[in-house]
């Protein structure tokens, strides 16, 4: 029997993508796990039905190579695509340097060039420029949901709350640029970057099990998983936008 297949981007150990690969593999899918550097997910190579692929979502050549590799192994189709690759940066908008902001803005939309298969699903996780890039990704996902529907392709947006991943480790080196207007609260911002803000965070394995269960269960539209995700969902659906903005 031919196994259903899924491609997951951003699968470095300790992150959401790594946990998603394990969750899909447990459900007997052929999982294509990708990352820019294969060594960051080498622990996955011993799992049955898991294929490791080098993939940089910002490189058109890398994306096309991955597409051709998957097509060759699946006969040209893919059941699920989980767009998880990304970069977390905690920094006030006014303190972002232009080069970093530009890279982030370009990174997320380009991932959708991976949509060259049948019956796909997308994973879109959702602070300044970083938040803006995620909002753009969500908007693109909504458009794709409409544009791909005639071809039998379902698109799901996963709104991700707080998850205890190793991306928080980068916060140990957090530093505001010289002359920042936020210098007086740098300790608070640094604590947020390290995940030391008191927010309850869901473990990646728990998060992945829930999301994979949702996707394989036929979820449509939007999924809300992770710490505080359900609270945010309730607030956005029940509270007037004017009230939400006034409290931000």
UniProtKB/TrEMBL annotation:
Indicate whether Oxidoreductase appears among the record's keywords. Answer: yes
- What Pfam families does the record tag this protein with? adh_short
InterPro entries with a match to the protein in the record: NAD(P)-bd_dom_sf, SDR_fam
Q: Which SUPFAM superfamilies match?
A: NAD(P)-binding Rossmann-fold domains
Q: Which domain of life is it from?
A: Eukaryota
Any single biological process term in GO: phosphatidic acid biosynthetic process
Protein keywords: Oxidoreductase
What's an example of a GO molecular-function annotation for this chain? acylglycerone-phosphate reductase (NADP+) activity
**Cellular component terms per the entry's GO annotation:** endoplasmic reticulum; lipid droplet
| Listed transmembrane segments | none
What family does this belong to? Belongs to the short-chain dehydrogenases/reductases (SDR) family.
- What's the protein called, per UniProt? Uncharacterized protein
Originating organism: Imshaugia aleurites
């Amino acid at each position: 029997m031919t196994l259903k297949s899924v491609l997951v981007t951003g699968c470095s150990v300790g992150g959401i993508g790594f946990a998603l690969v394990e969750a899909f593999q447990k459900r007997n899918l052929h999982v294509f796990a990708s990352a820019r550097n294969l060594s960051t997910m080498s622990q996955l190579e011993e799992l049955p039905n898991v294929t490791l692929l080098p993939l940089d979502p910002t490189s058109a050549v890398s994306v096309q190579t991955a597409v051709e590799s998957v097509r060759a192994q699946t006969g040209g189709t893919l059941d699920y695509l989980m767009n998880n690759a990304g970069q977390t940066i905690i920094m006030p908008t006014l303190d972002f340097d232009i080069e970093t902001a530009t890279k982030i803005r370009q990174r997320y939309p380009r991932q959708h060039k991976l949509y060259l298969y049948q019956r796909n699903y997308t994973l879109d996780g959702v602070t300044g420029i970083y938040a803006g890039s995620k909002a753009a990704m969500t908007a693109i996902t909504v458009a794709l949901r409409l544009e791909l529907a005639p071809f039998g392709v379902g698109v799901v947006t996963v709104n991700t709350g707080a998850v205890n991943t190793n991306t928080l480790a980068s916060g140990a080196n957090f530093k505001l640029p010289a002359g920042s207007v936020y210098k007086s609260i740098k300790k608070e911002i640094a604590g947020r970057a390290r995940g030391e803000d008191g927010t309850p965070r869901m473990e990646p394995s728990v998060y992945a099990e829930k999301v994979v269960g949702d996707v394989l269960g036929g979820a449509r539209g939007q999924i809300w998983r992770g710490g505080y995700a359900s609270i945010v969902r309730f607030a956005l659906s029940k509270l007037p936008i004017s009230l939400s903005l006034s409290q931000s």
